[in-house]
Amino acid sequence: MDKQFPHHYIKKDKKEYLRRYLISYAIKQRKKQNKNQKEIQVPEKQRSQLYQLLEEIFLSFKFTFKDYKIHIVASLLISIAIFSLTYWTYEEIFKDLPSPIELTKKEQSVSTKILDRNGKILFKIYDDENRTIIPLSEIPKSLINATIAIEDKDFYNHHGFSVRGILRAIVSNFKGEKLQGGSTLTQQLVKNRLLTSQRTFSRKIKEVLLAILVEGVYTKDEILEMYLNQVAYGGSTYGVEEASQKYFDKPASRLSLAESAVLAGLPAAPSAYTPYGSSPELALERQEEVLRRMVEDGYINEEDAIKAKEQSLILSTNKIDIKAPHFVMYIKRILAQQYGEELLNNGGLEVTTTLDLTTQLEAEKIITEEILKLKNLKVGNGAAMVTNPKTGEILAMVGSVNYFDFENDGQVNVALRERQPGSSIKPINYSLSLMNGKTANSVINDSPITYNIFGSKPYSPSNYDGKYHGNVTIRESLASSYNIPAVKSLAENGVNNMIDLGEKLGISTWKDRSRFGLSLTLGGGEVTMLDMTEVYGTFANGGNHVKTNPILEVKDYKGNIYYQNECVLNHEDCSDKKVIDKGVAFLISSILSDNSARTPAFGPMSTLYIPGQQVAVKTGTTNNLRDNWTFGYTTDRLVSVWVGNNDNTSMSYVASGITGASPIWNKIIRTQLSEETPHIFSIPKNIVSKKVCKGSKLIDEYFIKGTEPIIELKYCRPPIEILKEISN
């Protein structure tokens, strides 16, 4: 070093500065490693070598920069530019660049469909994108060709991007034709599925790079299928299947050339070209442009284009597409609880329900017509359900007379709301009596009585007609719905025992037992219609409790099965338990289907009577006239009906069996009965028939074996004569 640079180039003050700097630097580094370490002394030899190295670098740069200033500055600027460009390219393009295989691996939002039992669509659930995935084989060739002609004529020839398309777009945009984008179908697919819609230079580069990569991974038909299933056709409608359903109310496979041309023209500007817009003529102009392009590219001839333009387009009604809305919202709540909101809204579930849309629409029509007739009785609302007791299937659920009457809470589903059942709850109480050894022929005295219960006001039940009927049998008191015999029976059976049995039969609302007393048998405890369908369904099902189940199958659009109703589909695991004996269930059904036993209260030709059919039926009306019910069933059909007002105001007058719920029940259940094969309840093996006296007449009565009368009556005589014969 001394040979190259004379000693006088190095000033003493600079040497001293470097020496002090090196010592200070070494001490600071050591202190960072160990605070307790003593001050380090830099060895003289190492200090000298380092000093010489720094001296050489400093002086070399000084003399080089002095002679080559321009070159050094230029080199530095170029290096900085290269580094900056490399860094920007990495950060803006390659850092978060998606993989092309995400097109098939990345889950996309697919609508959930709720269907009736026959596959008819009730409703579609989605967050922002209403989409149904279908294979390319189900998309008509006319729509495929129309899309290629108007969006990307070189689709089958380019490798992801089209130079000619980009140049054409630049020229068209320069001329003011803003609808020319220059992106190929592959680029549009990449942009919509893998990138954002943000218009930046870096996103455009990503788009082109990914388009090239995608073309190397997938075939043209695969790309086309993915594109047609994800492209936006206006609003929340995505994919050709949903677009076809929305605009023409048909599956995409059935689209005509004229309809295909309309849909193919939408993606460029859905809000402008929609036939539902304020300028529907723009849709026809766009359709004509699509057909012209198809002729130019040789997909169709001029004659085909003319016929398509002349074809009248029949558009579907642009409205909220929902059928059986109360039922749909009930199903939606169940699905959300079981599978979560994310899967429900975006997972493409296909939910086949037990609902029969034909039965549903008939029930809706009947309720609407009958409620209109009851306006003068201050009846403003009605609800109904039709179920299959054997399987628990819900075939119809009408939650109110008009779901869309939001001003009057029409969206409230009365079938799920707690309301007082009136006398319709009595069969639970009388089931207890029969289970405790009573018979349908057991006598109860219908006479005044007052119950003095500690801590409560004296309770004196009264009958609906305000009369007393003397000695009546259980058959007569239940069929004619006398209140006093029911209260006397409950006093004997026990309120807690009735609650226990009610919960086994399906009641879920009697949790606070301290609220209930003897009035429970007259409807003093709130229930839901849904629960009561399980109660009456148990009687119809021979004592076997079957939970209501509104779902047949849940699967996703890929075919993965989440749930299947084994009871309905495979006839397995229908009943969860035996609640009451077959004989008891049969006796309740026999009493409720006995028109002569109900005649004293309802008359011989009430709306509860259906000639030629054995149908069990029970009504219920609350004392304040806020609720009026009718529940009636055969072995395989149960119809539940309620009328009242959503605001809980009283009706002016409702006579069970004549007005209110019973006429609605009568009309609905008739739709479920067959005149060719009239319904009759089958008699269980543990039931025997014996002659008993009703007044001066002999009638047949059913008994559970072991409870039947010992003496076989041949004719009816006064009791004193019978006693004399026995004593002799």
Plain-language structure description:
The chain is an alpha+beta fold and 728 residues long. The chain folds into 4 domains: 61 residues, no CATH class; 183 residues, Biosynthetic peptidoglycan transglycosylase-like (Penicillin binding protein transpeptidase fold); 278 residues, 3-Layer(aba) Sandwich (Beta-lactamase); 41 residues, no CATH class. The protein contains 27 helices and 18 strands. The strands form 6 sheets. A 5-stranded mixed sheet has the order 2-1-5-11-12. A 5-stranded antiparallel sheet has the order 7-6-16-15-14, with helices on both faces. β6 and β7 form a beta hairpin. The longest helix is centred in the first third of the chain and has 26 residues. It starts with 11 loop residues before the first helix and ends with a helix. The N terminus is likely disordered.
Low-confidence stretches: 1-11
Report the average pLDDT across residues.
Answer: 84
Terminal CA distance reads 152 Å
What topology, given as strand order, has the largest sheet?
Answer: 2-1-5-11-12
- Our count of helices gives 27
| CATH C-level category of the largest domain | Alpha Beta
Q: Strand fraction band?
A: 5-15%
- Round the Cα radius of gyration to an integer and report it: 42 Å
Helix proportion of residues, in percent? 40-55%
What best-fitting shape do the alpha-carbon axes yield?
elongated
The helix/strand class is alpha+beta
CATH superfamily (homologous) name of the largest domain:
DD-peptidase/beta-lactamase superfamily
Biggest sheet record: 5 strands, mixed
In CATH, the topology of the largest domain is named: Beta-lactamase
User: What is the domain total for the residues?
Assistant: 4
* Total beta-strand segments: 18
